[in-house]
Structure formats: structure tokens, C-alpha cells
Automatic annotation (TrEMBL):
Keyword Transmembrane: yes
Keyword annotations of the record: Membrane, Transmembrane, Transmembrane helix
Transmembrane segments annotated in the record for this chain: 363-385
Species lineage: Bacteria, Pseudomonadati, Spirochaetota, Spirochaetia, Leptospirales
Region (Disordered): 188-214, 329-355
Biased composition (Polar residues): 331-343
Record-given protein name: Uncharacterized protein
Amino acid sequence: MSELSTKADQLKRQADLLGLTREAVFTDEQAKEVLQGKITDGYLVKVKIDLDSLNGMVLILVSSIRKHIMELYAVVGTSPTFRRIRTFADHVQISTDLGDIGKTGGYDPAISENIGRAVHRAFTKEKLEELLPLWQKKDPSHITELLENPILMATKGRNIKLQAEVDKISTAKFRYENPMKGVILPIPKPEDEAPAAQDASVPSVSTELPKGEGSALDRQIAQFRTGFPKELNMKTVISPINGIEFDNLMEGMEILFRVPTETPEGLTNAQILGLIDEEGKIKKEPVVGKFLGIASNKTEYHIFAEGPNQYLFHSIEEHPVKVAIPKPTSIAGTGNKTGAGQTQKKKVGNAPQQESKSSGANLFMLMGAFITIVLIGVLIFVMVIL
């Protein structure tokens, strides 16, 4: 009976984790990869606050894929426990300490909520898009600059000192195993920010057209976007010699793209596609997408392809180009080597013939020289007799 109970508990835990993970990603495939440990779907921002005579901590759980705050905890007060908490400590230990503070009543709920609301407003989606590439490089330096003034204004404080750290984390495991659960509630997003939160939680690819019918190009683009949870702006890899012309592209054909990493959005997309390693280096290899089609109005050409995890790749060209495709398995190289060997064999086989021809030519030359000498001798002999 105990074994059945244990298996039931494990299945329930897996189901709960899967449900929580789906809230941080766009597709079931991404959720499975998160649970398998292949990708990480979030960051935990840990901020220690020293504000006048108060101390506290703010924990911000951010979805790195959906790019929005999932949960935010602000716990600020006079408890001496705050002083021993360090930002570099394990998040489970920090959450346990904050839960203990909540049980003893050593924090101020009103001030904590004001700070939490101020932090919510500071971390807009646009700001997160700028910070996520930095957090990928484990750089939390901009967090304190961002939060100092909002927290001072929200609390009417005078002196503030902030320390921040960022941990890469599974959002589902943090929420499922959170020691603060039932003791300290997360600070909700302010009502004036609610629409933004709703926008951030829905798929970012819009298939709605502007009011009215929209242009023919808009209608074409909307058709390609249907059914895709996320659109990534990409650059087409062009191959003028070996590439495939627009007219010869077929649906499902694999073509190559690159992520434009010159912008914060591009760096975020590179992270989503797993092109940034632990050291923050960006992989140079192109990304393969399955060609879907082209929307055009003769002045611009929108190329659409299906990328990994059902991402929609979208690149724009000003005129028809030859698109690069993945290189086939190199069989031709082996054939070339074989051909070269055969050529060498032919050359080796011809060598005796060339040598015999050379020997024959030398023999004829010797005979000619001998005959010439004999004739000259005969001539001299005749002249002497006469």
C-alpha cells in the first residue's frame, strides 16, 4: 500500500511540476525540456534592502522565455534575521529564513507591499528584455540602479543600500518547493499594470489585423503567423553561388538563418534558441528552419520558416536572393578522392609507355649519329685518295 502511495505522490508531483512549467513557457515541448533539465526557463533575482532603520529581501521570479514576472515576494521589517541573510546564499535557505520571519511577525506588511508594487512597475517587459541578456552573463549590476529611486519614492525613505544577485532556476521547482508557501503571499501586480501582465502571458505572435481589411501583405503575414506561439526576427543566410532561388523553394525545405545579436531582442532570441553558452559566448553556427512560404508586395519579401520548438522564424529581404541550405553529407568528397587516385593510377600506368618511347627515340638518335660519322669518314677517305 505504501509503494502505491509513493508512486501516486510521484505522479502527482510530476503533474504539478508540468502544470507550473507550462505557465513559464509557450509549448509542451519546452515544458518537457525544462523538466528534463535540457533548458532553464527562469531567473530568481535576489535583492537585499537596507532602508533607514529597516532591512529586508525582495525575491523576483522571472520567466526568461515569456519575459515577465511570475511571482514577487517583498519582506521588509525589523527582524534581526534579515541581517544574517546573504544574497549569494541558496534560494531555499533564503526562502526558509523569510518564512520564519513571517511566522514570527517580524516584518511590516504595508511597507513590504509598497516596495513590491514599486518593483513590479520598475521591471517592465521592455526593461526585462534589456536585462535578460545581462543575467545570462551573470551580471546583476543594473538591478540596484533600477530599483533605488522607485523604492525610495514608494517608502519616502532617505538612505538606501541594495545588493543584488541573479540565479538561473527552474520556475516550477521554486514555486512547488517554496518554504514561504502559506506564510508569506506574493505581491500582486498593481492594477494599473494588470493589462501589461495579461499581454505578457499570452502568445506574443499576433494574428489580428489592423482595423479594416488591412493590406494584402498584412493578410499574407497573418496567415503564416497562425498557430505559432512565438515569432523570432531572424536574418536569412544568403549564398549567391550555391543558394536556392525564391522560386525554387519548396514548403518543408530546410534553409539557414542567423540571429541578429546586435540588439537586446536578438540576444534574448539567441538565449531562447540555446545559442549562448554558460560563459556568455554566442555560437556562430546558423539555425535551421523549415521553409513555410514568402509574403511579398514586390518591394519587400517576408520569409517564414518553422524553427525549433515551433518558433516562427521571420526574416525580411528587399529583393529576391539565393537562400543558403544545410550542406549535404559529403559523399562527393570521397568520390573526388577516388577519382584522384584513379588519375594517379593512370599516370603511373602510362609511365612504362613513356619510358619505352623515350628509349626508342634515343636509339634512333644514336643510329643517326653513327651513320653521320660513317658518311663523314667515307667522304674524307675519298677526298684523300683523289
